[in-house]
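Q: Sequence in, structure out?
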Amino acid sequence: MKNPDSVEENVRSRLELISARDSRIGAFIEVYAEDAIAQARDIDARMKAGKKVGSLAGLVVGIKNSIAVRGKRLTCASKMLENYAAPYSATAVERIIAEDGVIIGSTNLDEFSCGSDCSRSKLAKTVNPLDFERVPGGSSGGSAAAVAAGFCDVTLSEDTGGSIRLPAAFCGAVGVKPTYGAVSRYGICDLAMSFDQLGPLGRDVGSCARLLSTVMGEDGRDAMTAGVARVDYSAHLNSFPKRLRVGVPKEFFSGCDEWVSEAVWGKIKALESARDGVEIREFSFPILKYALPIYYILCASEFSSAMQKYDGLKYGMPWSEANGRDLNEIVSTVRDRALGAEVKRRILIGTYVTTKEFRDAWYSKALKARDALKKEFARVFDDFDAVMGPTAPMVAWKLGEKDQDPLQMYLADILAVPANCAGLPAASVPAGRTKKENMPAGLQVIAPWGGEQALLQILRACEK
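A: Exactly. Output:
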């Protein structure tokens, strides 16, 4: 794509590309063509008049369709919310608009973010732009596909257990999950409120840094952001720590595809060779094996609670479309018709583990284990400045390959969920293509709490 002469020309070229290719790729649930052109014209007019424009002026942004954009459909890729329009915008979306980021549309996802490959959307089918026979990763698969296809520069996405990093790895993009509480969660349809975190998924580290600098910071509508300062990460992006102690957990490579391991180790060794002061050391981190069960028990528990409001009365498919003799039967019919199998599975699991009979055996123990995992990470960061390893133990799999076995899909998250359980900033950057499948592998970098600046600097060095 040639360099455009104006923001409007850039936006129009992206819309033409979407029109030509997205019917096959399926990255978007809705494209905001008229709004995007109008916004671009306004930016061009202000630039021509010598007036001030925002820090994102000209950057074309996609928004995951679990994040509210006022007046636009907020579907979570579900029949339950197929025609629901958001009455307000998320705080992060307001900040993007205020800084003149051009929002081009909403991207596809697994229904209510329940999935790891974006095959569980009820409103669109998304494929990997690098190989149409493979999945783009999930749950933010539409976001990664939109970036990889050149439909936008960056997307605002949401990461519960790798939902930004996994699709970024599968599609050869960059995905950043900041520290829990760094970005306001106001205006998102959360999968699990104590895990969810908004962050950028983009074509390069620079675009991710610009977006993260814009959306992070304190918001009175989300108490978790109290005291969080806004930082211009782009200003120091090309700096690099004089000393960088990198820990590589042996457990991250247990069960990892050998071609993925080779690509990731190649990128880690390349960083060590290219930068003075980088020390790489393997270590054992045995508690990581508990991260996946901790995540799925607690995530399902929070999700089942959050989904109670979708009964056809307050939200969702109108109850008048359902048949039933009483309220329970009508609500059951609404949920049965409007929700997919994976969403129902997670609701049932969460309901089961939080019942009075089983709460202490499952939910309470998982909370204690999560606290122990956080403490172990704190000890690790006494010895290391960053932790590195694969983003996922495999490359993008073929469409339909894991549809019949949800446990195999859950295992794809095994390397991503530890950062979410501990609330740590983590990111995925391309590590190169595997020799066997010629598909991207992702290098995951995990930093200490509040360590976004160093994290982005490391990513930029890896990118170079």
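The chain has a mean pLDDT of 95.
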